[in-house]
Write a structure and sequence with these properties.
By secondary structure, the chain is α/β, with parallel strands linked by helices. The chain has three domains: 20-156, Rossmann fold, CATH 3.40.50; 161-262, Beta-Lactamase (2-Layer Sandwich), CATH 3.30.450; 268-376. It is built from nine helices and twelve strands. The protein has helices at residues 29-39, 54-63, 101-109, 125-159, 179-184, 188-191, 202-218, 264-330, 334-376; strands at 20-25, 46-51, 68-72, 74-75, 78-79, 92-96, 113-118, 163-167, 173-176, 222-230, 236-247, 253-262. Strands 2-1-3-6-7 form a five-stranded parallel sheet, sandwiched between helices. A five-stranded antiparallel sheet has the order 9-8-12-11-10, sandwiched between helices. Helix 8 runs antiparallel to helix 9.
Length: 377
């Protein structure tokens, strides 16, 4: 016999509202009437729908959704535990009149069964069932919210352009998003339980392992590292990797969460800029050498001119004044020739001194001009 009551308020999914649809399966008509009367106490909270068998309940669940199921354990066509096959996601509470320890243990071991209550109507049964339903519905709603958050997070992770890699404490890859294939050429299953350093040259891998070991030891929450990897096809790519430490429930190191980005284009551009800077540096050095050589040439000509003027002046003074006086005093005609020889010997060191002075001054001027041109350009 089946006692008919109101159907759910709507056939739409409605798991987060104030009045909850509760499917109650009870094959005893007297107990069904008693339960209906007891639920009137909470009619502002629950909308009970009564069925008398697994078959009628499963038919109802094919077209309707409920917030919780309360079922007698022993039913004509099975047990209340069988309902998990028809609605595994909804919390199921088993009612039983027996205090059989073996049955209680069996129900407690079944993770799909949320809880059980004893049919002790004289001992605040409806209040106990109400509290149990509230806990079950709240837990169910939280699990739904958590699943939605997980689904949203997974959608974000799968659609993000960066590669997401999660490792355990041993450094083995436990999860990667789909973008890892585009970066490395490997599918997620190919990298599962392997170390990401398998994609890296052995020498580079050693320095990377030391880097992350240091982060683990120092308990640094975040880090960033750039390094080259080798793809499945043998191509070399550069990646920039942000690493965040993962902790378990006890606060112990549980692995890393890596966000890895392809920076090959960036590194290529940086290399081009570096090469251009090197070329400019070489050109500047060449210009500097040319300036110095030009300064030396100009200074050498100036020094030679100054030395020549000084030589002419000294020879004139010697010929016109000094030689006659010395020869008249000594009576030796070779004295004048000796003076000219001394003057000639002194002219070369003088020329070198003048040239060095002029070169230094010219280089200083050229340097100031180069700096000025560099600023103006």
């Amino acid at each position: 016999m089946e006692v008919k009551t109101d159907t759910p308020q709507s056939t739409e999914k409605k798991r987060n509202f104030k009045v909850y649809d509760i499917l109650i399966i009870e094959d005893d008509p007297i107990q069904t009437l008693l339960l209906k009367k007891l639920f009137q106490t909470y009619e502002h909270i629950y909308n009970p729908i009564f069925k008398d068998s697994i078959a009628s309940a499963s038919t109802f669940l094919e077209k309707n959704e409920v917030n919780a199921i309360v079922s007698d354990y022993n039913l004509p066509d099975g047990t209340g535990s069988d309902l998990i096959y028809y609605e595994p996601d909804v919390p199921i509470i088993i009612m039983t009149a027996t205090k059989d320890i073996d049955l209680v243990v069996e129900l407690m071991k079944n993770d799909e069964i949320y809880d059980f209550v004893l049919k002790e109507y004289e001992k605040n049964f409806i209040e106990i069932l109400h509290r149990t339903l509230q806990r079950a519905i709240k837990k169910f709603q939280l699990s739904i919210a958590l699943e939605n958050q997980k689904a949203l997070f997974k959608q974000l992770v799968e659609n993000i352009n960066d590669v997401i890699i999660e490792t355990n404490a041993a450094g083995q890859i436990k999860y990667t998003n789909a973008q890892v294939f585009e970066l490395t050429g490997y599918k997620s299953l190919e990298l599962h339980s392997k170390s990401f350093t398998n994609l890296i040259d052995s020498e580079v891998a050693k320095s990377i392992e030391e880097f992350y070991q240091t982060q683990e030891t120092e308990k640094s929450d975040h880090s960033y590292y750039e390094f080259p990897i080798t793809t499945k096809s043998g191509e070399t790519k550069w990646v920039g990797q942000t690493a965040k430490i993962r902790l378990n429930g006890q606060g112990e190191f549980a692995g890393f969460l890596f966000v890895t980005r392809d920076i090959t284009a960036k590194k290529t551009q940086e290399d081009k800029i570096k090469e251009q800077n090197n070329q400019l540096q070489r050109q500047n050095e060449e210009i500097k050498r040319n300036y110095e050589e030009l300064a030396k040439a100009r200074s050498s000509r100036k020094a030679l001119g100054i030395t020549l003027v000084l030589a002419i002046f000294l020879f004139i003074v010697s010929e016109a004044f000094l030689e006659p006086i010395i020869e008249s005093q000594t009576g030796n005609s070779l004295t004048g020739l000796a003076m000219k020889g001394v003057i000639a010997l002194l002219l070369k060191p003088f020329d070198n001194i003048v040239e060095r002075f002029l070169v230094k001054r010219q280089i200083k001027k050229n340097k100031a001009r180069m700096e000025e041109e560099g600023i103006n350009s």
